[in-house]
Amino acid sequence: MSNEELDSRLGPLSNRDRPGKLVCVRLREWDPATASAEEIAGWLDLYNDVMSADLPDDPRWNDDQLREYLVVTMPDERRTWWLVQDDDGTILGYAGLLVLSDLGVLELYVRPRVRGTGVGRFLLRAVADQAATEHFSSLGVEVVGGTPSATFYSSYGFGHVYTEMRSILSLSTVDWAHVAEMAEALVSGYVVQVHEGDLPDDLLPAYAEAKQVRRANPTGDMELRPSSYDTDRLRASLQCLNQRGLRPYIVVAVHERTGVVAGLTELVVPAQHPTRADQYDTIVVPTHNSYGLGRAIKARMLLELREREPQLREVQTWHATDRQELAQVNKELGFVADREWREYEVDTDELASRVSGA
Ligand SMILES: CC(C)(COP(=O)(O)OP(=O)(O)OC[C@H]1O[C@@H](n2cnc3c(N)ncnc32)[C@H](O)[C@@H]1OP(=O)(O)O)[C@@H](O)C(=O)NCCC(=O)NCCS
Fold first, then answer.
1. Whether the CB of 92 sits within 6 Å of ligand 1
2. What is the whole-number distance in angstroms between the Cα of residue 3 and the centre of ligand 1?
3. pLDDT of residue 192
């Protein structure tokens, strides 16, 4: 679709919005590293506008370390951004393409009041052109259940590959005495360590070894949120999280006799929405299963957060819908299923033909 064609589709809607005003839109590549403070604020305004429409119960974001959040990636990753703005500079939509080796991961949001006018397709075409230039074989995207995204992506040939359920724990509902019992019910032979912000160097090799378990038991997802399996990548990953304003907390169960990391649970408290934490990996190494380690370390994490992050109200976690082990622990802690998070994938040649032919 040409820029002109998009203008003509947006015109009537925008004119209804602001009678008598001719509205033009333009698409351009955007670099949040050099963007003005006003543009960063404009991005935040768009993001919160989208959240209000699609995830009204989620906390709104603030601008704390927001530029760093948008700019910083892992050393071997990079991200390209595009904006669609109207003639006043208001951001109507944005797309981001994160490149992880030969896989591109897309995010694309359009302001609710201009949806259905072609902005999404306009942005998707820019992403498809870039993907073709870079010769990716496929593009992945996370689609939030109950939003218009599933229909949008399906209409461009994206196929559903994997589903996770998001669950939310409201800390006001937690039975803290029970959680303390869960944390204390640790079998002998293991010791629990709590780390905030970083991991000590001497723990990194054992920690990376434990993370290999996820590799050996693939969940079936496309690794849109990849784990770090070696010490250098782990170190880089922790540094990246801190720079992006995502404060990491890690609770590990160490097997005393061997020194191996038998279980771990990771969580971040984002500066951009510090009342809601994001759970990352929880792993119990199979030879240490059935001792209640997962239960004990997740309970301990909650107790630590209560002390160290008094502003925290909720924790959100995602787990595969066909995996019951952690679902049981989460239920006992008080997590409540919220909505599905689905991964979609498209072959880039297929996408290119669909967006240009649409
Ligand atoms: C999905 C999204 C990007 C679509 O953007 P958009 O600008 O409205 O899409 P377009 O107007 O370019 O539509 C392109 C095509 O997608 C399809 N489509 C888009 N929205 C649709 C809907 N609600 N119902 C049915 N089809 C839809 C149509 O096939 C449309 O083709 P058409 O123009 O021939 O009718 C937009 O709704 C959005 O930003 N959603 C965010 C949802 C989300 O994930 N929120 C949570 C994160 S905080």
1. no
2. 18
3. 97
Give dist(CA 28, CA 90) in Å, integer. 13
pLDDT tens for each residue of 103-116: 899 999 999 999 99
Q: Ligand 1 within 6 A of 108 CB?
A: yes
Taking the C-alpha atoms of residue 271 and residue 247, their distance in angstroms, rounded to an integer, is 8
pLDDT at residue 34 is higher than 50 = yes
Whole-number Å distance, alpha carbon 110 to ligand 1 midpoint, is: 8
Q: Which residue, among 97, 139, 114, has the nearest Cα to 49 in the 3D structure?
A: 114
Contacts of 338 (CB under 8 A, 6+ apart): 165, 166, 167, 168, 316
Residue 71's identity, in one-letter code, is V
Give the pLDDT confidence of 65-76 residue by residue, as tens digits. Answer: 999 999 999 988
Contact 51 CB / ligand 1 (< 6 Å): yes
Which residues is 291 bridged to in the sheet?
A: none
CB 119 within 8 A of CB 82: no
């970083």: which residue's tokens?
A: 198
Q: How far, in Å, is the centroid of ligand 1 from the Cα of 149? A: 6
